[in-house]
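quick one before i forget lol
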Amino acid sequence: MTLEAQEARRIYKREYRHKNREKINQKQREWRAANPERVKNYQVRYWEKKAKGDVRIDGQGD
């Protein structure tokens, strides 16, 4: 993807998230309520990686 296309995509996604924030948040809350075990597993993996120093403080790590 060209740099111009990447920038256009970033702008579109940023605007979409801004305009649809409540809908996105509601869907996320519904998914988390329907999948508590997956959320718990994700949190365990995240904190184990953070304890090892694999997750950067600024949130850019995985």
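fyi Residues 3-19 form the longest helix (17 residues).
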